[in-house]
Amino acid sequence: MRIKVCCISSPDEARIAIDAGAHALGLVSAMPSGPGPISDELIAEIASRVPPGVDTFLLTCKHDAASIIDQLRQTRCRTVQLVDEVEEGAYARIRGELPNVRIVQVIHVQGRGAIEEARAAAEHVDAILLDSGRPQAAIKELGGTGRTHDWTISAALREAVSVPVYLAGGLNESNAPQAVRAVRPFGLDLCSGVRSNGKLDQAKLRSFVAAVRACV
């Protein structure tokens, strides 16, 4: 079970996450709402210190391929997490310009329509990440909500696509085992459930990792 710790805000938080057993770090660029955004310069600094074997995800809400490619070149992250819809042809252009960068598309699970969204995206990306945002809200919510969603839909979605599926949205030590059993995802993505007063909580993170390892 892969564990991705998102909303990393400093080299110290990156070290805490890696020491606790994180397989990947989420680095959040500018967003319309939600916790954890940091500058592209800080993302680049943190990414440059992450050792081989631990993935770095750039979270971006940009829609056009040119801006996404420019941001990836600046930050030098190994994976891009697209938290919103992108323009037609964006996946192919990112692949063409940056063939070594993995592409993860976020699908916000608001109903069973998410299954068809995931099927369409899965043809072009390396993985799908399921979250609980509201892209159609007046101020878009594209992650970090701390809310769970309907895991029965997530489970059906995982069965419907051939690429790995990460599960996000309101995960914590208490509900992670249930989430794993219900969805059987490739990985878990967490942010608010392992933070205290806005900072990564080492004790909460270690407890989360232990709870996940005990149920897989």
What is the secondary structure topology, with strand pairs?
Layout (H helix, E strand, L loop, with lengths): L1 E4 L5 H10 L3 E5 L11 H10 L5 E6 L4 H11 L3 E4 L7 H8 L4 E7 L4 H10 L4 E5 L19 H10 L4 E3 L8 H8 L3 E4 L4 E2 L2 E2 L1 H14 L1
Helix pairs in contact: 3-4, 5-6, 7-8
What does this structure look like?
This protein is an alpha/beta fold and 216 residues long. The chain has one domain (2-215): TIM Barrel (Alpha-Beta Barrel). Helix content is 38%, strand content 19%. It has an 8-stranded parallel barrel with strand order 1-2-3-4-5-6-7-8, surrounded by 5 helices. A two-stranded antiparallel ribbon has the order 9-10. Helix 5 runs parallel beside helix 6 (151-160). The protein starts with a strand and ends with a helix.
Main beta sheet: 8 strands, parallel, barrel
Number of domains: 1
Helix/strand class = alpha/beta
Q: What's the β-strand tally?
A: 10
The number of helical elements comes to 8
Helix content: 25-40%
Shape category: globular
Whole-number radius of gyration? 16 Å
Provide a short characterization of the protein structure.
The protein has 8 helices and 10 strands. It has 216 residues and is of the alpha/beta class.
Structural descriptors:
216 residues; alpha/beta; TIM Barrel; 8-stranded parallel β-barrel; two-stranded antiparallel ribbon
